Amino acid sequence: MGKKRIFWTIIAVLLAVISVRAVLAQSKTLSLVKLFASLREADPVWIVLAVICMIGFIYFEGAALLCITGAIGYKRSQFSGLIYSASDIYVSAITPSATGGQPASAYVMTRDGIPAGIVTVSLLVNLIMYTLAILTIGAGTFLLDAQTFWNFKSFPSRVLIIIGLVVLTGLVAVFILLLSCGRKVFQAVARIIRFLADHHIVRNPDKVCGRLEKTVEDYEACVAVMRGKKRALVSAYFLNLIQRISQILVSVMVYNAFYGCSAASGKVFSAQSMATIGFNCVPIPGAIGVADYLMIDGFKEILDREQAIHLEMISRGISFYGCMVLCGAAMLIAVIIYKHRKEEKRGDDRII
Q1: How confident is the model at residue 99 (pLDDT cuts 50, 70, 90)?
Q2: By CB atoms within 10 Å of each CB, which of 22, 68, 223, 309 scores lowest?
């Protein structure tokens, strides 16, 4: 683990501690002890289902990556897929960018014998499908239950949700533009960068344009490699869709565990969906603090304030903190396995 990753891990832990304390401070009755004690009153079946949904969040991302790499000709085991996913999710949770985990996932994939170019293409395709999946959920929620948006009483919550939708829509638009006329887009953006550099707004225009051209080249390579593989693309999209739904369903399962399955379960799903859109693009490790704020604001229309905080804490504890611990453990196991393989290979080389 590099120094940057250690630094961001420490930052993420500190933010998590501050966030949990801040949320608990809003409650008149809750404490960590009471929070854990309340699990005894919950229906264990629904809690188990919540944990299964959290594991599904990890599993389905790995399945999507395996689907893409397999279509290109690099089939790997389900265990490998879980490690690719765990690396991405864990590092994304401790870095400010939602795609911050991709370098970690890329490192694991190359160690697993997949060429760097194929890894780049696979991760880019998965990012596109991931973005489309979240946008689909957001659009579906607005179409089927638009009132949920207005149930967020806080003005900042609504702004964050709108910004999230705009950013996701913008990303999809960029993907489509690059797909249809990538070179023209690059040339137009390069001219803008040069213009801004001439007016001393952008520094190192050659470096910026170089990175932009590399992105366009990666995207073109992605299109070339995946051309004719529509079934794999559709499968990757649906696996990403199921992945995001799995995460959202954690809150629904926790709600059912304490209050029983009812029509309000659908409202919990809608509130969690919009909250997810709102904190998805926030440049804070794991959207810590922002996610808690949005979830509580959304749940307050369904439950009273104390119950909303309780639901948010348990749900977030499973879907985020529990997920982080599980992914961190998976990464540790992977490191031990790869180290063991490396030592075995050295031993074989010495024998030869």
Answers
A1: low
A2: 22
